[in-house]
Amino acid sequence: MSMSIASPPEPPGVHPPGAVIRRLAAVLVALLVLAGTVVLGAVPAHAGSLGTGYYGDSGFLGAYNTDVDGRQGYCIDLGANSPFDPTSGPQTVTSLDSLSRQQLAELNYVLDRWGQSGDPNLTAAVALYVWSVADPGVYNSHGMSGDDYYVARAPVGVRGTILANLAVMRQEAAVNAVTDPSLSVSIAMSDQYAGTVTVAAHPASLQGGAALTGAVFVDGSSSRTLGVGQYGITGTPADGVPSYRIEASMSVAAAGYGAQVDLYTTPGAQRLIAAVAGSSTGLSVQAQTPMIDLDFQPQIATQVSSRYVAEGDAFTDQLFVTLSKGTWIRLDGVPIPITATGTLFGPFDEQPAEADAAPAGAPVAGQETVTLTGAGSYTSPGTVVAAESGFYTWVWTIDKAAQGVNGRYLTDSFADRFGQMPESSVVPFQPVAMSEADQHLAVPGDALTDTITVSSANGAWLKRDGAFIPVVFEGTAYQVPGTLPPTQAVLAETGAVPLGTVTITADGPGVYTSPEVVAPQGGFVTWVWRAHKATQPEWVRDYLAADWTDEYGITVETTSVRWPIVTTSLMREYNVHPGGRAFDTVTVTGFPANHGQFAGDGYWQADNDEVTHTVYGPFATDAVLTDDLDLSDAPLLTSITTPARNGVYRLGYTDADRIEPSEPGFYVLVTTFDGDDRVQPYRSSPADVLERFFVPPTPEVELPVTVITQATATARVGEPFADTALVQGTIPEGAYLQFRAYGPEPADAEPNCTSAFYQSEQIAVTQPGVYASGQTTTDQPGNVYWIETLYDADGTILVEGTCGAPGETTVITEQPEQLTVTTQAVAEVTLGEPAHDLARVSGTVPDGSTLVFEAYRQDGETATCTDAELAFRSDPIALDGPGDYTSEAVVFEQAGTYYWIETLFDANGDEIHRGLCGAPDETTTVVSVPTVPKTPELPPSLALTGAGDWMFPFGIAGGIFALAGILTLWFGRRLAIYRERHGYVREEDEDFLALFDEQS
Fold first, then answer.
1. pTM for the structure as a whole
2. What's the CATH fold of domain 431-561?
3. pLDDT (tens digit, 9 = 90+) per residue, 200-238?
4. Can you state the angle between helices 101-114 and 120-134, rounded to 10 degrees?
5. CA distance 829 to 441
6. Least confident residue range of 64-78, 425-439, 943-957
7. 878, β-bridge pairs
8. Parallel, antiparallel or unpaired: strands 923-927 and 828-830
9. Most buried of the four, 253, 801, 903, 938, by CB within 10 Å?
10. pLDDT digits (tens, 9 = 90+) for 486-526
11. Domain 820-927 falls in which CATH fold?
12. DSSP secondary structure letter of residue 659
């Protein structure tokens, strides 16, 4: 335990006046002695003198200057003379008089610690300590404590300080002084780099400088002052060495320790002692470890070169090699090679979960090796190529056992984790679709759909978060230009018109049905599907390999929207006598212009080029001639076939197609077409009164009056509709006909004819014939029920229909919201006669819309409607809503075929609809002026049978009356047509033409 030494109350070297006087006296005495010696003999080389201390009345208390080596020594002989004579030494002695080795060690300690001080309070205390140990008998022989006795040599004011210093010296010497000081150093390693240095010393208070080779202390230094204890160290081998050792050295300045002192002698005078001085008293030790073999531990972190890898491209991985332990071993200055193996697992249909190791059975796309020669960056060779879609992830390993002799330098094997995102790449998948139109055949207005089977063309359909990645497919239904099936091609052909585009979001591979697209008109409609990256949600795009589009015109993706045909016809006469002949004119429209020329292509059937006109009868009554008449077992008179082409066909005029009834009764001509892949099946109605004729039995005086009616079957809200009546029999003078319309009523309700919303004028009936009600409209949908009433001149009802009778219902439907245009051009005219086109506009018509008609003359088989063929263009016709719009009449200058095209423009002049070139019902054939065939002779008068002579005048009168009526109808219609063609039409002609147009 260290004690503090008291400081003097005065500055060192400052003494009381009395002491100064005494010191001066002593100096004078010494000078006298010296002078004497000079006189008496030679002066020695070294002599003692008073050092730091106090000179009192009773003597000196302090240190002597040895003058040999400049150190201060202390007297050990109290009774001897002062050592002013030449002094020799020092001599280091390990024994002195009868002192024990411990006493000698304590003297050495005190002398070394305080003996050379310049403080008289310390040197005085040292002198007292030396005397009390080296000469205790004399020191304590004065009848009192030697401390008290000898301290009296010092001034009174410092005596307490001196004695306090003396107490400290005795206490610390007893504790710290050792007879044999020692020092040892040892090194212990806990691993290749971490260890401890242990310092042991006697006494434990020894400290000294320690130095390390091949290691540093925990503060990073390689040298520092150490005392007794353990100190952590870290080995610092040179980079790349396979082994190294650590050395530790330590030196302690051990002056003042041990059982020894330096002795100075002066003949005949006191001996002086001082602490052993010099380096010989220092302690030095060394320690070293055995050679420490080194290893190192590389570890690999990777980052794929690209997150998304295209099919056919190489997978590459960027390796970042670091060391978790040691430095890379070098042999002969060259780094040892270490082989790292990378395994690319995949494909997976979604990002695999991260794990310590790949799951059992995980697919492997390939392996690569990289030779590592130090920490840094490496790139994998890129020998594994992306073969199919999926998620791929790298796992890199270093197998210690596979490194051969170099394995001894590795601490352990290494493997990184499976499924890490930075080590994973994605090969995008390629969504594709195979489609098949759900409707092989359809009719205008049908809803068309397509079924697509979607899949990935290059592997798995990828997932994210457990769900298939959704892909949006766009399907466009194209109206194929012209009338023939499309030709398969990469791009849609010029003139193909998109009818609508729909989308399907495929949430994985499977079968999907598209939304509906309406086919507005006849022709072929083909689907084209695509899946483009730009139309996908942004997060989906990187997972898709490329844009995909299927081809245009694939047969199974095509629907034939079959053209509807229409026939209008009129028997030349209604009454035909038995054995006479009937004549009919049938106008056929709706066939494609090239119908009959298409021979089929293996998928689509060839055109059926035959229309059949069958005359059924006789029937006992015309009441059975309704729309639902079963013709399979009906009596058949004859059948006539004509080509399935647009045109006007005159039936019964030649011997080959004679219509020659032999039995009385009612007959009807029904036109049928069996249909083909381009045109719908068709059958005219047996209820069509304009296609009937009657073979009367032997004429009677008076025939019963009958009325047969046929109303417009369907109309839309706001469109005109009407009723017609065929009146037969003997018509009384003054008879008139009235039509009434009731409703509209719900279709599922019972017919209700309580209150008529329309009543025609009184229509005079003067002879058998067809009479029209006049047109009306309604602003509500539903069923409209017609009732015709025939009155005599007195208003008595002769014949009245019934509510809801067959053929007397007009079904009113809502106007379609979609703007649609259907057209009907005059099918055939004679050169010089006017032609025109009619457009029926339905749906919502934008305000300010206009309609323009154009006609193009054709010179070849292919429909062509360019400026070079333009023969007529009408002025814009303002549209005031849905309805029928007729072009102005045009007289074409050349015979031939003309294709009409109608075009709708909005208020800004932008085109909103344009018809197709060569569309059915849009063809006018201009024929040269025909040679009028010789009119067949009319049959002779009906023979009279089954009656007496009195019936003869009545029979002649009835025949003349009926013949006059028929001729009147025939002649009136021809006259009206003639006036219309030459631009002179009277109001009554319009009514007459309207009567027959309603039947067409």
1. 0.57
2. Immunoglobulin-like (2.60.40)
3. 998 888 899 999 999 999 999 999 999 999 999 999 999
4. 170
5. 33
6. 943-957
7. 850
8. parallel
9. 801
10. 999 999 999 999 999 999 999 999 999 999 999 889 999 99
11. Immunoglobulin-like (2.60.40)
12. B
Q: What is the DSSP string of 38-100?
A: HHHSPPPS-B-EEEEEEEETTEEEEEEE-SSSS-EEEE--TTSBP--SB-EEEEEES--TT--
Handedness of CA 625, 626, 627, 630 (dihedral sign): negative
Q: Which residue has the tokens 């002795």?
A: 263
CATH T-level assignment (fold) for domain 297-427:
Immunoglobulin-like (2.60.40)
The mean pLDDT of 911-917, rounded to a whole number, is: 87
Phi and psi torsions of 31, nearest 5°: -65, -40
Give the strands of the sheet with 376-379, arranged side by side.
297-304, 317-325, 376-379
Looking at this protein, which amino acid is placed at residue 292?
A: I
Determine the average pLDDT of the residues in 408-419. Answer: 96
**Ordered DSSP codes for 920-972:** TT-EEEEEPPPPPPPPPPPPPPPPP-SS-TTHHHHHHHHHHHHHHHHHHHHHH
Q: What is the sign, positive or negative, of the torsion defined by CA atoms of 2, 6, 12, 17?
A: negative
* Among 755, 815, 823, 826, residue whose Cα is nearest residue 785: 755
Domain locations in the chain? 49-176, 182-253, 297-427, 431-561, 563-699, 706-813, 820-927
Specify the CATH number of the domain 706-813.
2.60.40.2550
Identify whether the C-beta of residue 789 lies closer than 8 Å to the C-beta of residue 801. Answer: yes
Q: What's at 927, amino acid-wise?
A: V
Q: Give the architecture (CATH level 2) of 563-699.
A: Sandwich (2.60)
Among candidates 600, 598, 603, 670, which has minimal Cα distance to 634? Answer: 670
User: What SS3 class is residue 989?
Assistant: helix
SS3 state at 505: strand
